[in-house]
Amino acid sequence: MKPAKASVDAVNAFLESNSVNSTTLSPAGDWLGFSVPVHEANEMFDADFSIYKHATTGQESIRTLSYSIPSFLQRHLDLVHPTTTCVQRVSAISAPTYLVLPVLQWAMAVFH
User: Fold this and answer.
1) How far from the centroid of its chain's Cα atoms is residue 99's Cα?
2) Which of 102, 108, 101, 86 is nearest to 34 (CA)?
3) pLDDT tens for residues 68-96?
4) pTM: predicted TM-score of the whole model, two decimal places
5) Is 33 in contact with 107 (CB distance < 8 Å)?
6) How far from the centroid of its chain's Cα atoms is residue 7's Cα?
7) Edge-to-edge strands of the sheet including 60-63?
8) 53, 64, 106, 110: which could form a disulfide with 3 (CB 3.0–4.6 Å)?
């Protein structure tokens, strides 16, 4: 279902205010994608992204335990991904302070 123009405009304004360009990911326009370095995502979403490692497989994922979006966006967004969801159980690992976290692909689900 196509989101309201006001919602798309609000989300794009937020991204543009952070010098981020988005791409429409779905035919309906209800998913927007963008790429930012993790340190910028930390600032944009008041988060603390860290590397988590699956206890059995050793697979690593960058996630956060919590994030927030500005109040003016709360009625316009369903979710931001990837953030707090891990497909498999993982445990936090400590990363050296010199570690440079990669640029990740992010997606936002815009309300209809």
Assistant:
1) 20
2) 108
3) 889 988 888 887 877 766 655 444 444 43
4) 0.71
5) yes
6) 17
7) 60-63, 50-54, 90-92
8) 110
